[in-house]
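Self-study notes.
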Amino acid sequence: MAKVHRLINAVLRLAAAGAAAAAAVVMVTSRGTTSFFGIQMEAKYSYTPSFIFFMVAYAVAPAYSLLVLVVPAGSALYRLVLTTDVVLPQCFLLLSYYYRAF
């Protein structure tokens, strides 16, 4: 049962890492232009602080997910990983609300 749980955990973490990496690449490489009353405007992720924050978060997430895969289960470091799995999303959520205020 433990091996099945570890396999499912690995598959889900790899899927999350791939999705986050794809989101970071799409966010960095995408550009948009629009015309507003005859004025051409260009939109990039770097123009908004909240998008910069999300791009950094999407870049950190794959690294963290892949790092967690090499931590052996049952060790003290694994307990730290479980704690950070709970705490980090809460911190990112609070920081995203902070950046939305600007």
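Second protein, same conventions, sequence then structure:
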Amino acid sequence: MTRAPGGAETRHLVLATLHTNDASQTPDRIVDVFPAGQQPQTRLQLAHTPVGALNRTRIPRSGGAGWPPSRSWWARRRSAT
């Protein structure tokens, strides 16, 4: 995982599997992997490189009959400069 931000900066496709409850937690989970001294730099890299993250999970159906898939998507907003 430590090479992923650098790979993304050079426009390489980076795929990873992380354990989070939803896609919005993905950036924090990535930063938490790094030592405290590297976290500010990692946050800066994440602010400029990733396009998004997809989260897939299963949630119980309201009637109790099955667990259909659920998805959430986190996408980086582009600045209007």
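Instructor comment on the second fold: The CA atoms of residues 6 and 45 lie 8 Å apart.
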